[in-house]
Amino acid sequence: MTTYTIDAENRTLGRVASEAAKALIGKNLVSYTRNKVSEVSVTIINASKTKMTEKRLKETLHEKYSGQPGGFKLETNTKILGKKGWKGLYELAVSGMISSNKLKPVIMKHLTIKD
Asked: How many Å separate Cα 21 from the centre of its chain?
């Protein structure tokens, strides 16, 4: 199993998340096939030292829907950081960059995030 370590210190959330998503999907491997999970694990270190502006923390909205009438909610990055920390924010970003199919939960298990 190939292991990638990505240092998030002084880098933006999206740049680190897209690099992690590409590695998890296996796009940078010669043996890439889209219907198989690649043998890759990705570790993001120094997640709490990610560079993010105050405007981005307060004004970026993430949608949640429970499936029930009136169950639509919007959360800011500040609220997500308060509940789940940087790990939750990185998981949300990387999961949004991976295609939604049966392989997504299996691929996401190969992602580890350390503060």
From this structure: 7
Count of the separate structural domains present in the chain: 1
Mean pLDDT of all residues belonging to the chain: 96
* DSSP one-letter string for 12-28: -HHHHHHHHHHHHHTTT
In this predicted model, what pLDDT tens digit does every residue of 49-76 receive, in sequence order? 999 999 999 999 999 999 999 999 999 9
Domain with 98, as residue range(s), is: 2-52+86-113
DSSP the chain: -EEEEEE-TTS-HHHHHHHHHHHHHTTTSTT--TTS--SEEEEEE-GGG----HHHHHH-EEEEE-SSTT-EEEEEHHHHHHHHHHHHHHHHHHHHHS--STTHHHHHTTEEE--
CATH number, domain containing residue 11: 3.90.1180.10
